[in-house]
Specification:
The chain is α+β, with helices and mostly antiparallel strands. It folds into five domains: 152 residues; 189 residues, Rossmann fold; 102 residues, no CATH class; 285 residues, YVTN repeat-like/Quinoprotein amine dehydrogenase (Methylamine Dehydrogenase, Chain H, 7 Propeller); 208 residues, Methylamine Dehydrogenase, Chain H (7 Propeller), CATH 2.130.10.10. It is flat. Helix content is 21%, strand content 39%. An eleven-stranded mixed sheet has the order 3-2-1-4-5-14-13-12-8-6-7, with helices on both faces. The longest helix has 35 residues. This is WD-40 repeat-containing protein. Keywords: Repeat, WD repeat.
Length: 1073
Amino acid sequence: MAKLVLLDIEGDLNQGASVTLEIREQFRAATQTRQKGKLPPNPTLLEQYRHWQSLYRSLDFLFRIEDLPGQVTNFARGEAIAACQIAGEVLKDSLNNWLNTPSFRPVREKLLEKLMGDETIQVILQVEDIHVRRLPWHLWDFFERYPFAEIALSSPAYEKVETSANTRNKVRILAILGNGNGIDVAADRMMLEDLSDKAETVFLVEPQRRELDKWLWDEQGWDILFFAGHSASWGETGQIWLNRHERVTIGEIKHALKRAIARGLTIAIFNSCDGLGLAHYLENLQIPQIIVMREPVPDLVAQEFLQHFIAAFAGGKSLYLSVREAREKLQALETQFPCATWLPVICQNPSKITQNWQELTGKVLHNLTPAQPHAQLRKPLWGVGFLLGMTLVGTAVFQWQQAELQKKIALVIDRVVAAKTLFNSEQALEALLESLRAGKQLQNLPGVNAATRIRVVTALQQELDGIRERNRLEGHGKTVLRVSFSPDGEMLASASDDRTVKLWQIDGKLLHTLEHNDSVRSVSFSPNGQIIASASYDGTIKLWRRNGQLLQTLFGHKNKQVTSVSFSPNGQFLASAGGDNTVKLWRVNSTGLAMIPKAILKHRSWVEQVTFSPDGEILAAASTDKTIKLWRKDGTLLKTLAGHNGSVLSVSFSPDGEMLASASIDRRIKLWQTNGKLLQTIPAHDARVWSVVWRPDQGAFASAGADNTVKLWSRNGRLLQTFKGHTASSYSVSFSPDGETLASASADETIRFWHQTKMPTLPQNRAVKTSISFSGDRILSTTNGDKTVKIWSWDGRLLKTWQGLAAVLGASFSPDGQILASTIADKIQLSNKDGKPLHSWKAHEQPVRDVNFSQKNGKILASAGADNLVKLWRWDGSLVKILPGHQQAVNRVSFSPDGQLLASASDDNTIKLWGIDGKLRKTLEGHSSWVWDVGFSLDSQTIISASADGTAKLWSRDGELLKTFKGHNAGVSNASFSPDGQTIVTVSADGTVRLWSRDGYLLETLPAQGVGVWGGARFSPDGKSLVLASSDRIVLWSLDLDRLLERACDWLHDYLETNPFVSQSDRFLCQQK
């Protein structure tokens, strides 16, 4: 007898979960068995899943995306695959250990008691938490005992599906073959076409949105909706790429889908990229069964799964067993495609389960309509509230509000995770937009914990720090080959294989589309910016006004393709190059432009590009004959530059006219003097170099390559920056007149604007040690082993530098910010705010490692010495107390904000707590190596310590160990609290800075910016900034959500305003409060 198993899980991995088990006969409503259990908190399992997920997603060379040849070596692939497989095994073991905990054992034992190994079992996991849903439940060892069982995911709240009854001879399939760039969707189509005797399939190949809507509303209805192509999901949302220019979310087509479901749509199959977000939205529409891929899917895996699933399902097996059989057959691919068996996932509405293919035609569906109150499907609590009275109504409303709040918080977190994934995939604009959405949602959520806020603001800060793409212009239908800024910087012209030139406003708004009869290879503005010249494979050069009006069409390259066009600096001449192996020169006259017959410059092969020198006297031509030729305007050949090992595709003069840069199919850029002397050969790209152009300030040049990248180089050939984001060859680059913006054109049909931006950084001299201190007026102090103390304002201005102070090891402000205490060798020195020395004295017999003011009144100082002693002092240098007890050097001293305790950290592996009277109150033992740092929370109730043993520890005021923060791979040099005490920052010699919630949950790992064992990190007093100190600089991280959202909106302004694929809701995102 077939059985239905419902596992209802309420909770999450951080707090633990209650579990309710129900076992039913498959087609009977009544529950036969009910059992309750619990699963304990297991945040480690969540981290292990995220670790596996990050490793899996790093295998992007396997997925259903365009292959990037030459970018991943076999050795690197093997290492990455092995790491993913190992992480998968660790996750599997942890999952099963969790499911074997004593509190869950009653559920497990009831399953073993009531189920037989030869039964067909459908397991439905009803769970709301997105992280629990993502776990690889098919790896539960329960399924090893039951070979005819398969699991599906379901939302705990669902509605009975009402559909019309249709009887037909064949199953109806609506197959959407969306954007298939880099995907073999033709293979999916062939498999579906093989069902022609059993199914009527309508194929929509890269449909427009309106076409899809029309077919979804089809009066006959559909049984199966199938999609293959690019898609992506983020938490509870997702998108499918209908075609190269149009992406839609499920929400944007929900009305058409609802009608299709009402007319009998029973199964949706998304044989595409990660789709759990798509599935969640489809579940909300109450579609009965959905099959998606858990994560991005390799092309071969997607095809193999579809082939095996169709064979089993259309052959008469149940949907669940067909998925299990197809999934298990993927195991043969796992040496090449790790964790392939993890990918297919069923999502199920429990009220309607389709058993097999035959039922789709007859619609003999089994409705699980409960007969008894205790077996009813979970309903909203409104009805119960009315029955029990207004008190329970209030409770229900509160519970509903809390549930809604938690769902919104989960969506915020998932957006942050999605943003990171996008950012790591070089999709920076999409990543920043996703974080902006998260931040805007966070602004409107009450009672959000500090941990969630930290995750959002650090994501925003990292993306704002790392993003280089400023805008993306989309509108061409094929490869974009050339881009050129107007001289005034107000317009951009682009030339494309789609036979058009497009004129754009600098903000990305499309102004005009100018047409040729064949591919347009080049475009150039006249020096006054009023005329645009375009060159095409249709054999013509066209001259256009800035408003798009055609002025003149030039013929002269013997009906051959024209490859390049360029105006002279004075605007009196135009040079053109073509497939007839020549460069031709045209002169402006009263009627337009006319060819100069004698100025025909010949190469032995195609001329790819021609350009004038800055003084207009010399022309440089790059040719497929592997040379660059320099000519006078009268046709005199001055020089032939040979040296490239392949066709020369681009050439550019430096603005001072002293140098040329050339780019070649041989993957190299060469720098030349104009006298022909080769200066340098640069291995520039991993594939052919399509374009090279100098920046107007002469200090740098840029290149575009077939490896999809754009690169910025110094004048002497040093790589300054690599811009990544294009998904196909980068063909052309152009600088704006001010040199601030770089535009690139690509075979991915986009034009991208790139800017350089950096986090606020306070430069330092390289030194041995750096520490940080704050005063109440937001001035910070840094100290260096280079014998200096520097005082900075929060906007990055250097206010004061004191030099010649011997080896400064530490510094601290008095609470009122008026006095600075610094340690100099074995002395303590007090200075006023202006740097004037007030008093100094010998404090220890060995170097003083730290000094700190009492935070309550500031009249007492504590010092830490390498002589194992802690000492208390008055401002005048008189000794108050010697605190002996440490067995080795003391590294740090810290007063509690209430002034009642002093904590000291030592190389003897301990922290000691002292009363203000100097009496030892407690020794905190637990670290296994030197303790380098110690500090109090602002309320003085908790203490954080950092140690060379690689951990930080949280202690109560009375010395109880509350939490150990593990995860760093080397000693932790620094740890401190946020002002609200809810977040802890740690700095390690492993090169990372980590943010933790006080309960030990890792919130974020930040790029360390060079912070090492002698580095430091501190929150600003208002909690709105995080300061990271390294041996050579201070880095300011903003944690101010409002300010970060302002910056994100400023950065994305043009993209949101003008990009045609931005949704209407996102277009007004920055206007939302």
